[in-house]
Here is the input.
Amino acid sequence: MKTKQFFLSIIAATTLLMPVAAQLQFPAPSPLGKLEQNVGLGTISVEYSRPSLKDRQIFGELVPYGSPWRTGANASTKVTFSEPVVIEGENLEAGTYSVITIPGETSWSVMFNQDAELRGLNGYDESKNAVTLEVEPEMLEEPVETLTFGVQDLRDDSATLYFEWEKVRVPMELKLDTHSRVVSQIKEQMFDGTEKSAGEYGNAAYYYYQHDMDLEQALEWMEKAIAMNPTFYYMHRKGLILAELGRKQEAREAAEKSIEMVQEVPSMKEEWTFRNQEFINTL
Here is the structure.
C-alpha cells in the first residue's frame, strides 16, 4: 500500500511540473472599438466591432442596399446617450440603443432600437425602434478602410454623430437642451443665499456674458470672483462685460490691468497680452 501511495505521489508531482500548453491567440477580424465624447452636460458613448474593407466592395454587395444591417460586425453597434437628445429632428430619450441601418444609394434608414442586447439582427423587432431616421449619405473622395464612428462639430448644445466606411459617410445632427439646464442650475444655486467659490462666480458671470443675459448681474459676480481670486483671466473677462455695458474706458482699464497681472505668469504672458491688446484695439 505504501509503495502504491509513493508511486501515485511521484506521478502527481510529475504532472504538476509538466508545462501547460499555451492557449492559441489570433487577432480579431473586426476588433472592438469604443468611443466616448462629452457634449454639453452629457456624454455620448459608442461600442462597436470594426470591420475593414480588405479589398472588398461593401455597400451594394457585401452589405446589400435595402436590407437591414447591424452597422458593424458581431453584435449590433450600441450607442448610449446620457442625456435626452434631438437627433435629426426626432426626440430620443437618454439610454442605450442598438443601431440598425438600411443602406441605400441616396438615402439611409437609421434605427435606434431599444433592445440594446441584440446579437446582430437576431431578435430584431421593428416595434422597439425608438426613432427611425432618413439620412442622406455623403460620398467621400478617399475610402475609409475601417468602419469608424465619431462625434464632431461640438458646441454647447449641438454636435454631429456620424459613421463612415468605404466611401460613405452618414452624419446625424444632434441637439441638446444644454442652455436651459445651465440657466436653471445657475438660478437655483447662485441665488440661494450661500457664498460661492471664485470659480462659480466667474463661470456664472462669463456664461451670462456669452449668452447675452443680465450683464449687470454678470459684472457683480465677476467682481466677486476677482475679489476672491484676482487673476488675469477674470480681469480680462470683466473688461469684456464692461464693454458690452458700454463702459469702454473701464473696459480698457480692466484689460490693461489684465496685461499687468499676466506678466507674473510667463507661460501665459504672450498669449494673454496679445488677447488683451486685441480687445483694447476694438474699444
User: Anything to note?
Assistant: The radius of gyration is 29 Å. The chain has a mean pLDDT of 92.
